[in-house]
């Protein structure tokens, strides 16, 4: 009687006509020890089904999205700070101290330039002396040419004699 | 929705998601990754989760689509070798879990089924879902689900009977 019922159920099962209750009945039957010999080969199938149902997902899912959001914002904040560091000083302009320092540097350089120009002026006066010397040399050359002219003249006089 | 609420909502069916992913992707590691991916996707949309009529069914559909995508992309990028590596390691894991050789046979037979039938057998015989639920999850009508299930069950029976008789003769 029970066996007939089970065989019917198996037939229905394979035609996908069984309800969930009937399938539970089948599973219970095959889970028990007294399975008829000619139905023995269905046993592993139902055993497998109930065994696979035991399998569990044990891995943890990292749902701490808040933390990751915070980390994202930290990088954004770092970039913002960096940019501020670059931009703000140029907006604010130089401080009082920096101005003074710049003035000092300016004065020092001006002093140095003055020293250089002093030296230049000295050099210039020496150069004018040189120019005067050059003039004298020219005059000397002119006198020398006069002397050579005088020479030629005396030569001519000597020839005439 | 707070994290605790989400966890309590997801808890009842996360194993089902994992088992379906494992049925399709075969390797345990792949299935774990897929499950994580799906739970994270759900968590990301946790504000909209209240709008879904049936979060469980929705997640199962998501799992199915995600796994089929994974399989497709794997075939496209020729990662089959890696995949069969995973299969190897997972079957040894299964060996640890499953003491009996004949029970192991059933899982091998199921691996050979077409994807659609795998999903249906998984949802019906292992997770005990209603036909109407399965039809909704897979976007099919109930008759089609029944036909596919019947085919899958008959294939399993046929192969199981064969191996059983091999054992005797």
Automatic annotation (TrEMBL), chain A:
Superkingdom of this protein's organism: Bacteria
Organism lineage string: Bacteria, Pseudomonadati, Bacteroidota, Flavobacteriia, Flavobacteriales
Name of this chain's protein: Anti-sigma factor
Membrane-spanning segments: 70-91
Keywords annotated in UniProt: Membrane, Transmembrane, Transmembrane helix
From TrEMBL, chain B:
Residue span, RNA polymerase sigma-70 region domain: 9-75
Classification via InterPro entries: RNA_pol_sigma-70-like, RNA_pol_sigma-70_dom, RNA_pol_sigma70_r2, RNA_pol_sigma70_r4_t2, RNA_pol_sigma_r2, RNA_pol_sigma_r3/r4-like, WH-like_DNA-bd_sf
Domain RNA polymerase sigma factor 70 region 4 type: 106-155
Pfam families tied to this protein: Sigma70_r2, Sigma70_r4_2
Keyword field: DNA-binding, Sigma factor, Transcription, Transcription regulation
Superkingdom of this protein's organism: Bacteria
Alphabetized PANTHER family for the sequence: RNA POLYMERASE ECF-TYPE SIGMA FACTO, RNA POLYMERASE SIGMA FACTOR HI_1459-RELATED
Family membership noted in the UniProt record: Belongs to the sigma-70 factor family. ECF subfamily.
Protein name, entry field: RNA polymerase sigma factor
Organism listed in the record: Winogradskyella marina
